Amino acid sequence: EYGGADAFLDFIESDLKPRIESRFRIDRTRQTLFGHSYGGLFVLHTLYTRPQAFSTYVASSPSIWWNNRYIEKEEQAFTRKVNATALPRETRLLIGVGEGEQTLLQRELRGSPTETGNLEWRRGRRRMVDSTRELAERLEELSSRNLVAMHRTFDNESHVSVPSVALATAVSMAFGIRPADAR
Fold first, then answer.
1. Coil, strand, or helix at residue 40?
2. Are 57 and 91 in contact (CB under 8 A)?
3. Of these residues, 37, 55, 60, 61, which one is catalytic?
4. Fewest CB atoms within 10 Å of the CB: 76, 132, 133, 147?
5. Helix count (H) and strand count (E) of the chain?
6. Cα–Cα distance between 1 and 24 in angstroms, integer?
7. Hey, how many other C-beta atoms are within 10 angstroms of the C-beta on 161?
8. Catalytic: which of 61, 101, 151, 157?
9. 38 and 5 in contact (C-beta within 8 Å)?
10. Could you tell me which residues come within 8 angstroms of residue 15 by beta carbon, excluding any fewer than 6 positions away?
11. Angstrom distance (rounded) from CA 4 to CA 22
């Protein structure tokens, strides 16, 4: 079962953020959203549908392939809107991925289709490095509209190991430090 991204985002905006703000001093202009895998997909959805919610977005290995790449429809609508009216403030996006996420693993190439699923679907799913780089390149075209889109491929990292290094980068970005090797 899937869905509920907007309800979760409503919870963050209407319940979680106010609760945190009631206990701590918060600078609303410096808030970061980080997510990995399906969470990375949620980060993109949030940027595309409520770009004012955070100032920095970090999508670690976002599942762009999900639901026949549905997120690209949201990206197109976001791009049209931002081209018509620039974002009100600088908004930063880092899309990170592990270099080991590009190709299928040997164990994924073995087995019957019923055990391992459709090979073409899995190949498309594994184009994570290409898909994230292509996304960042498309979004870089919005740099004059207050979107700073960056891409980083983390060397020697896989889907399982990349969240920790991506999170370290997200913390730096939250403090305004741009990753030196992000493109």
1. helix
2. yes
3. 37
4. 76
5. 10, 4
6. 35
7. 13
8. 101
9. no
10. none
11. 26
Predicted pLDDT at 125: 55
The closest of 165, 180, 182, 176 to 60, measured between CA atoms, is 165
Cβ-contact 117, 65 below 8 angstroms: no
pLDDT at 107: 53
Q: Which is catalytic among the residues 74, 108, 159, 172?
A: 159
Tokens of 30: 């410096």
Q: How far apart are CA 52 and CA 56, in angstroms?
A: 10
The tokens for 136 are 């960042």
Which residues of the chain carry a pLDDT beneath 70?
Answer: 104-126, 180-183
Length of the chain: 183
Residue 159 among the catalytic residues: yes
Token pair in block for residue 20: 């945190």
Strand-pair category, 56-60 with 32-36:
parallel
Q: Any residues with CB less than 8 A from the CB of 130 and at least 6 apart, and which? A: 102
In the annotation, is 101 catalytic?
yes
Q: Which of helix, strand or coil describes residue 115?
A: helix
In one-letter notation, the amino acid at residue 126 is R
Listed in sequence order, the residues at least 6 apart from 35 whose beta carbon sits closer than 8 Å to its beta carbon are 41, 42, 43, 58, 59, 60, 62
